[in-house]
Amino acid sequence: xxSIDRAREPTPGPIRAFEFPKVERREVDGLxxxxxxxxxxxxxxxxxxxxxxxxxxxxxxxxxxxxxxxALEGGTRRRSGTELAxxxxxxxxxxxxxxxxxxxxxxxxxxxxxxxxxxxxLAETVLSPAFPEDEVRRAREQxxxxxxxxxxxxxxxxxxxxxxxxxxxxxxxxxxxEGTLASVEPLRRGHLEGLTEAFYGPRTGGVxxxxxxxxxxxxxxxxxxxxxxxxxxxxxxxxxxxxRGRERRLFVVDRPGSVQSELRVGxxxxxxxxxxxxxxxxxxTYGVRSRFAFxxxxxxxxxxxxxxxxxxxxxxxxxxxxxxxxxxxGPTVAEVEAARDYIAGVFxxxxxxxxxxxxxxxxxxxxxxxxxxxxxxxxxxRSVTVTAAAEAARRHVRPGEVQMVxxxxxxxxxxxxxxxxxxxxxIVDRH
Length: 431
What we know:
The protein is of the alpha+beta class. Helix content is 40%, strand content 18%. The longest helix has 20 residues, at 133-152. Strand 4 (94-99) and strand 5 (104-111) form a beta hairpin.
């Protein structure tokens, strides 16, 4: 009989060998085509990325890129939304749209032997959306409902308020990705058409294909369906990602009677392409609820948690103490080793489907990363030393500049924060 000591924590196994699928890159009539053949399953994932994201938009139309993406499946100049859905269902295919700060991805997943028909529908959706009035209205009302719901959710309120306090006015990251009631409510069909005409095009975008198909086959199909596609986004807006302030401040969003406080503590971080990306990734993988949000430009570094109202002040003091400790002392050897092993170990587990691999390859297009970024990912993670992680902490974690937001009962929370003597405390009126 085998005896098992259930009181002992199991030791991790060795890191398994893994190779990222080989990616062939081609230029097809100005379009960046990347193909990774995965023949294990007869499934193909095709993602068309266009640089039509919220970063490119002015504040008065914030949320337009997201709304446009949400309305894409509402029909084309050839098919209604119902007909489009029925065509996909007959193929056993799925179509999805995702919009972020950098752009919009329209993704098709289907069996390899239905790819020709599926790709035709994908191209039709991207190149000739119709934006029927009823579909635009439905998408807009849904977006507004989501914004109203977020305004009642303490966690969302805390995150949005923190972004507003971390980033300078005029920096898109200072506002919610989905926009605001004031910016989304006036949007109509003409706005969506204008965005696709101005931003949807092959320039600075790309097509990523993963599955049981060759690069030669895809080059011919992409040329057939996208060869006449022209244009792309205008020159990118030059925006300096600056902090709203460098003085440490505390803000309380009042929720009378709340028994909990949602806390956000942070400042401007670094972009995904920054040379310190991997050291900071390792540095904060082991940290609970703290992270750098790596984006095309310098995103936020933030700590987020929820605590009981009566310990809000103590929690803020502890968070700040942890930040000061990581800067002064750096992480321990055990912490760095655990973080490295975890990141390297789960990397293959997040690449088990063609869609997951396609999303990773699309990152190369979105952020302008080196072609071998994923090939060397685990090598770069495992090469992060304790010294490198500590130096990254000293360079990029700034306890003296954090903006601290608490969403909770101001009558109880504000005195606790004032007693900490960490900086000015302001009660925020969001009405």
